[in-house]
Amino acid sequence: HRPVFRLVSSAGPAAADLGRDEQPPGSEVPGTEDKTPKKRFSEVQRERREQAQRTALIHCPNKISEKKFLKYLSQHGPIKNHFFYESFGLYALVEFCQKDSIDSLKHGSHTPSLSTEAAIPFRSRFFSLRQRNPSSQSSEQSCVKISSQVPPTNRKLFDVLYYAESVDDQLNNLLKASELTEENTKLRYLTCSLIEDIAAAYFPSCTVRPFGSSVNTFGKLGCDLDMFLDLDEFRENTTNKNVGNFLMEFQVKSVPSERIATQKILSVIGECLDHFGPGCVGLQKILNARCPLVRFSHQPSGFQCDLTTNNRIALKSSELLYIYGALDSRVRALVFSIRHWARTHSLTSSIPGAWITNFSLTMMVIFFLQRRSPPILPTLDSLKSLAGAEDKCIIEGNNCTFLSDLNKIKPSGNTETLELLLKEFFEYFGNFAFNKNSINIRQGKEQNKPDSSPLYIQNPFETSLNVSKNVSQSQMQKFVDLARESAWILDQEDRASSDDRPWGLAALLLPSIISKSHAKRSKNKPASERVRSLLESIKQGNTADPASTDGE
Ligand code: CTP
Ligand code: MG
């Protein structure tokens, strides 16, 4: 007998204020078919970006009256939404109804004069609110509601799984407990918007766009914030006034390659963030990576940020995942559970190395769902064939065309339960011919591997690239062994009625015999792989021991 357990939505007051159509995709109650039209990815990005531009981040005194706080800020204009959160101090995210209010707030603020240090007078939308007369308010209790921005504890996740009514419930509840909240999403777009203001010092009409798990609906609380500096906007916005025989161009400096241009731009923006960016700390320039980037912590939001430039293809792949995540409510539940399973068994890590990444795991789940009969997800080629003229998209010679209006895609007739899909996933990949086949979500079928990488997942848009090129043979073997063991455990579960032991998905998260034997083997392994992983992480600027990092 399992007690009935209902998970209370972690969405706070901000989500409650939003209309139904402003809720993030996938936020519907599991099991209820959502008939409201789903927004296009580009529409969501536009709205979130505009919302972030009307928003300010305020460091508050620890004790504050919410009523007085709102009254004070309303002098700059009506407030649409706000929430408080803690991150080494109390912060408030305040969304005004109009953008003008931000200008008014900026006009009413001043640069502090510091006693022992000198301030860099950069006027951003990140403020500090001070009390003029702290003693008069000290008796006032802080009565603000705090919105949590951190992932659920293992204890909470254990309860979520243990007290669920079925394996399907377990997967859906795990999703609800760990997905990005409305508030966290707002904080992510705001952080990009704040970084954009700094980059705009050099490139006035640039855009800093989030991509990856912050926007593709597969992000969990605590995931990093991937963003890219988009300078292509210039090209799009130029209205063609060049009638007649003339064409006007900017005089520019030139460098030998696109890569060098990227490195130069990221280098100065990195310096700027480091020296002038309020809240930006621990900046590292990783300019020699395949995709050069600047990594830093945005202290007030608590996000680890990776800033790249001209990464439009990655934004397209975020859009593709957004569509796959929205097409069927089982997709995200399955992906979140498998990622959680992989993290628990140290198949994935928060630092780069020879292990499988969350992105690769997501591609594997999508591929698996394309292979069901009938398929749960369409292939990328079929999404391309459904595309209209407005969807046509070629980036750097790569065809990234696919249907953007996901309401035009027919829902799958497949009615398999999550419980079955979870088990079949482990069966499928426990027996997959990784030694000769590659995973290809464009065609939805396995192909011969073009090289001998232990795991080959074709990049959906840059089709000559392997998404999981980094994965070592021993990590691959560990994945296969754990998948087989998990399929076996789920199979046993079918037969034995469970008593008080963790059951269903929770049973798969217990320390595994296989993990232990792999850990032992890897400790005994003398050279190549461990050294390679270590070198890889040093190259990326990390020196931590992979085994000891559990940032998530
Ligand atoms: N990406 C890619 N090929 C890779 C790695 C990453 O195209 N080999 C792109 C994907 O679009 C991915 C994005 O870069 O979503 C960000 O990469 P990463 O942060 O590694 O993955 P996320 O999807 O953001 O997942 P996580 O929550 O682990 O950060
Ligand atoms: Mg990421």
UniProtKB/TrEMBL annotation:
The record, for PANTHER family, names:
POLY A POLYMERASE CID PAP -RELATED, POLY(A) RNA POLYMERASE, MITOCHONDRIAL
- Identify the coding gene: Mtpap
Annotated organism of origin: Dipodomys ordii (Ord's kangaroo rat)
This entry carries the following GO cellular component terms, namely: mitochondrion
Matching entries from Gene3D superfamilies are given as: 1.10.1410.10, Beta Polymerase, domain 2
According to the entry, every stretch annotated as the RL domain falls at 41-107
Q: What GO terms in the biological process aspect are recorded for it?
A: RNA 3'-end processing
Q: Which InterPro entries match?
A: MTPAP-like_central (IPR054708), NT_sf (IPR043519), PAP_assoc (IPR002058), RL (IPR041252)
Q: What is this protein called?
A: Poly(A) RNA polymerase, mitochondrial isoform X1
What keywords would UniProt list here? Magnesium, Manganese, Metal-binding, Transferase
Which residues are in the PAP-associated domain? 421-464
Region Disordered: start-end pairs? 15-53, 517-552
Record's keyword annotation contains S-adenosyl-L-methionine: no
> What cofactors does this protein use?
Mg(2+); Mn(2+)
Looking at the record, the residues that make up the Poly(A) RNA polymerase mitochondrial-like central palm domain are 168-325
Q: Where is the composition biased (Basic and acidic residues)?
A: 32-52
**Gene Ontology molecular function:** metal ion binding; poly(A) RNA polymerase activity
